[in-house]
From TrEMBL:
Name the record gives this protein: Heat shock factor-binding protein 1-like protein 1
Gene Ontology terms for molecular function: transcription corepressor activity
Gene: HSBP1L1
Keyword annotations of the record: Coiled coil
PANTHER family listed in its UniProt record: HEAT SHOCK FACTOR BINDING PROTEIN 1, HEAT SHOCK FACTOR-BINDING PROTEIN 1-LIKE PROTEIN 1
GO cellular component: cytosol; nucleus
BP term (GO), one: cellular heat acclimation
Family, as annotated: Belongs to the HSBP1 family.
Length: 75
């Protein structure tokens, strides 16, 4: 039993270090998640803008009706 005495404080220190590391990793994960969500929203807006610009160009080129027919007609 004497051999287990010194291991108890070391075990607690290891558990505390693991808990601190887990909390740190969780904080980094939450920050990364927030960053990714923001970038996905930005990309979604850019895709919508691009789609609008492509549609405007198709109208200017006079090919809007043929493009809509291709989308509506499955192959």
């Amino acid at each position: 039993m004497a051999a287990r005495g010194p291991e108890a404080p070391s075990g607690r220190a290891l558990r505390d270090a693991a808990e601190n590391l887990f909390q740190e990793l969780q904080g980094h994960f939450q920050a990364l998640t927030a960053t990714l969500n923001l970038r996905m929203e930005e990309m979604g807006g850019r895709i919508e803008d691009l789609q609008k610009n492509v549609n405007d160009l198709m109208v200017q080129a006079g090919i809007e009706s043929s493009a809509q027919e291709q989308v509506a007609r499955p192959y």
